[in-house]
Design goal:
The protein has 13 helices and 15 strands. The chain is α/β, with parallel strands linked by helices. It has two domains: 163 residues, 2-Layer Sandwich (VC0802-like); 209 residues, 3-Layer(aba) Sandwich (Rossmann fold). The strands form two sheets. Strands 1, 2, 3, 4, 5, 6, 7, 8 and 9 form a nine-stranded mixed beta sheet that branches. α9 links the parallel β13 and β14. α5 packs across α10 and α8 packs across α9. It binds adenosine-5'-triphosphate and magnesium ion. The site of adenosine-5'-triphosphate has 20 residues, from α5 and β11.
């Protein structure tokens, strides 16, 4: 008996005039998710089916599909002929050996000789007889459910559970953002959250080579790879800011190191975003989490961004909530590897917690801001993930 995977999408976004646009993006992303497998994707009355795949790849394919935003639920089903004998054979494979159950039926083919209620009754009766007393019907609180879907092509789908998908909207339907990706826990989660709303994500990472090592870079590449499974691919851009940190270290007040560096990062990020047609910056900042993420710290870095919005999807989250999401998306183990990104180099003992804009301006005036940014752009590298 053939196994297929039924895919249902979050229909709420697909109504109205934009339906085709959302569906095309969703379908493209589904195809991409299963491209490494020998599997076929077909559209079937308001949902998709994955079929003709080798059975030993089932789990892997399901894991991939669970990362596609816009996917509401999926089910692993048996596809059979729609005659009751064949449906019964498939239902026996879905049924637990003992316990309570119910049958739920749906007819796509309205010419099928039995109504959905009759299908459920007939199949339920057959299963009861087959189980010889080990099964009981409980329509209100069954321990398992057998679901039957009669299709128009003389076939039926028989399945059990609904597996929860990633939900959200298909990536590619809500513009493009540039994620400031550090090696930490927060920024991959921030990217994941914006991708969930349909945003395409490219990443920008600042490093302080040779103060930071190659392992730190590999860690960021690995994080971008993990993220890219949800974002349908990404480009990772890396920029060296060592010379900027050295210049700040040499000329400015030590407690403003992070504040000033942040402003350079945001300026570089905005310019780069505009070059690659990204429509916003995304960061993993969360209010009050560290000294630079006070409202004053955010005001300071925000004030150098002139044309684009800065999205901070984690701004109201506790660290624990962020960690939960990091674990769920599969990034946590990589995020906690001990390799430093640039911000831990030249770290002051007491960073300014409430930096004042006039003082920042005075310190920044000691630097050749444009020259330093220009030099940073000389080092930019693009890694296609
Ligand atoms: P994360 O866990 O994302 O590293 P964090 O708690 O360490 O965040 P900060 O170091 O204050 O917080 O960074 C705040 C945000 O600034 C990060 O979430 C990220 O978006 C951006 N950022 C920080 N360092 C870098 C970097 N080296 N490259 C790119 N973006 C960075
Ligand atoms: Mg960090």
């Amino acid at each position: 008996m053939k196994k297929v995977i039924i895919i249902r999408y979050s229909e709420i976004y697909l109504k109205g005039k934009n339906r085709g646009f959302f569906e095309r993006a969703f379908e493209t992303n589904l195809r991409r998710a299963i491209e490494d497998f020998d599997a076929e994707l077909i559209k079937n009355s308001g949902r998709y089916l994955v079929q003709n795949f080798p059975e030993d790849q089932t789990e892997e394919i399901i894991e991939k599909l669970k990362k596609v935003f816009g996917l509401h639920t999926l089910s692993l089903a048996y596809e059979t002929s729609s005659d009751m004998d064949s449906i019964f054979e498939a239902a026996k494979l879905q049924a637990h050996p003992a316990g309570t159950f119910k049958v739920e039926s749906h007819r796509g083919d309205k010419k099928y000789p039995l109504t959905s209620v009759e299908i459920s009754k007939t199949l339920g009766g057959l299963l009861l007889e087959y189980a010889k007393g080990a099964l009981k019907v409980d329509v209100h609180n069954p321990s398992f459910t057998v679901r039957v879907d009669i299709r128009e092509n003389g076939k039926a789908l028989v399945f059990g559970d609904f597996i929860e998908g990633a939900n959200g909207m298909p990536v590619g339907t809500a513009g493009k953002g540039l994620l400031l990706l550090s090696g930490g826990i927060d920024s991959p989660v921030a990217g994941h959250m914006m991708a969930k709303r349909g945003m395409k994500i490219d990443c920008l990472h600042f490093h302080s080579y040779p103060y930071t090592n190659m392992q730190a870079k590999e860690k960021v590449v690995d994080l971008a790879k993990i993220l890219s499974e949800y974002t349908c691919g990404t480009n990772l851009y890396t920029v060296k800011v060592t010379h900027i940190q050295e210049a700040i270290h040499e000329k400015c007040k030590p407690d403003l190191m992070i504040t000033l560096l942040r402003r350079f990062m945001y300026r570089i990020a905005e310019r780069h975003a505009l070059r690659i047609s990204a429509q916003c910056l995304i960061t993993g900042e969360s209010l009050g989490q560290v000294a630079s993420q006070t409202i004053e710290g955010m005001t300071s870095s925000n004030s150098v961004v002139e044309r684009l919005p800065v999205l901070r999807p984690l701004v109201g989250f506790d660290k624990n909530e962020i960690i939960d999401r990091s674990v769920k998306m599969g990034a946590y183990e990589t995020s906690i590897l001990p390799f430093e990104d640039c911000c831990t180099v030249f770290l002051p003992d007491f960073p300014a917690i409430r930096p004042k804009l006039d003082e920042i301006a005075r310190e920044e005036a000691k630097l050749d801001v444009e020259g330093l940014i220009e030099e940073a752009f000389q080092s930019i590298e693009k890694i296609k993930i």
